[in-house]
Structures are given as structure tokens and as C-alpha cells.
């Protein structure tokens, strides 16, 4: 076996290096939620050539050609859903949130949710009412997906080119799936791994409000990986939960805290709509290489305890 058994199942010592009687310098942790392994190795941050990605600044070309801004509705596929204060014709200005098919889908059904008509570049720039409308659009589209036989909707946000975003205007995507994806299905068996994480959350907690908690993932894959979840195990799904608008508000706060601590960094965030739904937030502060991709062991150069302490100290 790669690892010896450990009573807690979360923190384990590294095995000796092959052919040597010494141990490696990092600390190996096992994530109770996903089962993946992570090496906490802060000394790796000092290696030569280490560089952290950052969001590219806006350009005049971006502002003049963004297809998601109000008034350019003809530059996207016809909308499938929209929220507006007053009656309007489809595919015209006057909307507050607009949903359109992805122009280059990877799946049978894949939609883009344009969060606001103005040119906001991050979820962190949206206000409470705007985020509430995004939550409502997610809920309505999840209900539409289920009515058409798609039992699972994967909602996610990509910010920055390193995070996979091709357009900077704040948006999310909804992938309609016939069954839960593997990463969500793997969390479904046995005792709730998220509840296990939350029982020992004090060291890792960044913020909490309205029945939700934001914490540094104890076995985060990359620096400053965060978990956002209901504090209590609830039977309802994410899209039905009355906590969803607040969760998007706390997600926006989390990104603001990340920006305050590390600058405007690329970020991925997604919903796992399982028995204890949650949002995973992964800043793209390092590059996945052969250890992560080939061995399935992630290397995190910022101890999650340190990440939590840093994010608690900055404004959100």
C-alpha cells in the first residue's frame, strides 16, 4: 500500500523515499471528502522560477467588443432564459440576468449565465441583489433540466484565462447531465466527509454567516483552496436551498478576500450538489504538473491553516 493506515484518515506521514531510509519533507494529507492525497510542502514555493498567474488587465478592445454586454444580444445564441424588471422582447436589452446556449459546448446541454448587463469582470464585483438574481436563474434552469430528464446540473464559474475563461465578462456555466459526475458520486458513500471536515473547522474557518461557513480546505489541492457549505447537513439540494443566494454572496466575498491577499488571481469555483451540498473554490496559484496529473498526489505550497489565518485578516 502507498500509505499506512491512520486512525483519522486525514493526516498521514509520508512513506520513505524509494531506496532510501529517510522521509520526504512534506506532510501528506488525505481529504476525507474526496479521498485524494495532498502534500503540504511550503518549501516548494521558494523554488527558482515559481510564478503565480494573475488576471490580465482590461483592454479597450475587450470593453468595445464584449458580446455579453447589454446591447450586443445578437452576438450570442438566442437566449433560453432571462430575468428582467419589465416585460421585454427576447434577445433585446432590458435584462438583468441572461442565459444562452454555450456556442462551443462539450456536453449535450451546456448553458452560459451572463450575470449582469454591465461589464463586470468578477463575481466579486456583484452586489447582493445581483447575486440573488444569479441564484434564481440557476434554480430556474436546474428545474428546467430536471423536467427534461437531466437529473444533475453542474454549475461552475471560471475567472481568468488560466482558469479556463475565454471571455472576462462575469458569467457562470450550467452543464446538464443525466447522472451525477464521478467527483460528486464518489462523495456519496458512507459517512458524510464534509461533516467530518466541519467538526474540526475552527482552525480552518475564514468566515461564517447565515447558516453558511467558509473555510480553507484542510487538504486543499492548490494554495488557498476553499470550501463553502451549509453549516448543518441538510437533505435539500443546492438549487432548492434557501441558502443559495447567501452562498453566492459568500463566494463573492471569498474572491474579494483572495484578491486582497494575493491580487487578482484566476479562480475556479463549482457546486457539488450532493447530500451535503457545497461550493469548492480553487485559485489557480500554481500549475498542475506530472506529480498531480500522473500520480494523483497534489502539492500545496501554502498550509491551509496559514491560508485561513491570512484570509481572516483581510477585508471581504
Q: SS-based structural class?
A: alpha+beta
Order of helices and strands: EEEHEEEHEEHHEEEHEEHEH
Q: What does the overall shape look like? A: globular
Largest sheet: 10 strands, antiparallel
Short description:
The chain has helices spanning about 60-65, 130-145, 180-185, 195-200, 245-260, 290-295, 305-315, and strands spanning about 10, 25-30, 35-40, 80-85, 95-100, 110-115, 150-160, 170-175, 205-210, 210-215, 225-230, 265-270, 280-285, 295-300. It is α+β, with helices and mostly antiparallel strands.
Give your account of this protein's structure:
The chain is α+β, with helices and mostly antiparallel strands and 316 residues long. Helix content is 23%, strand content 23%. It has 7 helices and 14 strands. The protein has helices spanning 60-65, 128-147, 182-185, 193-199, 244-262, 290-295, 304-313, and strands spanning 11-12, 27-30, 37-40, 81-84, 95-101, 109-114, 152-159, 171-177, 205-209, 212-216, 226-230, 267-272, 278-283, 297-300. The chain has a 10-stranded antiparallel sheet with strand order 4-5-6-8-7-12-13-11-10-9. A 4-stranded mixed sheet has the order 1-2-3-14. Helix 2 crosses helix 5 (244-262). The longest helix is centred in the middle third of the chain and has 20 residues, at 128-147. The termini are far apart. Residues 1-24 have low confidence and may be disordered.
Amino acid at each position: 500500500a502507498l500509505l499506512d493506515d491512520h486512525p483519522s484518515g486525514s493526516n498521514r506521514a509520508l512513506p520513505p523515499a524509494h531506496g532510501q531510509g529517510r522521509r520526504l519533507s512534506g506532510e501528506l494529507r488525505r481529504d476525507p471528502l474526496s479521498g485524494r492525497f495532498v502534500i503540504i510542502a511550503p518549501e516548494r514555493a521558494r523554488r527558482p522560477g515559481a510564478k503565480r498567474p494573475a488576471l490580465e488587465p482590461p483592454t479597450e478592445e475587450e470593453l468595445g467588443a464584449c458580446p455579453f454586454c447589454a446591447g450586443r444580444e445578437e452576438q450570442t445564441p438566442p437566449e433560453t432564459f432571462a430575468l428582467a424588471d419589465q416585460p421585454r422582447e427576447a434577445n433585446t436589452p432590458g435584462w438583468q440576468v441572461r442565459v444562452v446556449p454555450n456556442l462551443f459546448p462539450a456536453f449535450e446541454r451546456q448553458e452560459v449565465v451572463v450575470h449582469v448587463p454591465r461589464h463586470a469582470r468578477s463575481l466579486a464585483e456583484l452586489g447582493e441583489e445581483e447575486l440573488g438574481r444569479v441564484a434564481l436563474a440557476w434554480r430556474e434552469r436546474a428545474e428546467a433540466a430536471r423536467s427534461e430528464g437531466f437529473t444533475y446540473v453542474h454549475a461552475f464559474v471560471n475567472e481568468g484565462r488560466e482558469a479556463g475563461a475565454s471571455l472576462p465578462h462575469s458569467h457562470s456555466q450550467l452543464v446538464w447531465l443525466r447522472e451525477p459526475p464521478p467527483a460528486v458520486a464518489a462523495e456519496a458513500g458512507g459517512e458524510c466527509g464534509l461533516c467530518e471536515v466541519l467538526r474540526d473547522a475552527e482552525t480552518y474557518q475564514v468566515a461564517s454567516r447565515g447558516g453558511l461557513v467558509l473555510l480553507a480546505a484542510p487538504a486543499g489541492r492548490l494554495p488557498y483552496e476553499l470550501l463553502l457549505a451549509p453549516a448543518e447537513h441538510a437533505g435539500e439540494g443546492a438549487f432548492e436551498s434557501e441558502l443559495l443566494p447567501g452562498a453566492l454572496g459568500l463566494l463573492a466575498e471569498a474572491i474579494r478576500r483572495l484578491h486582497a491577499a494575493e491580487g487578482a488571481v484566476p479562480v475556479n469555483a463549482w457546486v457539488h450538489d450532493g447530500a451535503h451540498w457545497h461550493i469548492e473554490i480553487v485559485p489557480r496559484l500554481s500549475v498542475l504538473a506530472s506529480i498531480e496529473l500522473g500520480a494523483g498526489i497534489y502539492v500545496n505550497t501554502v498550509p491551509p491553516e496559514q491560508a485561513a489565518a491570512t484570509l481572516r485578516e483581510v477585508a471581504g
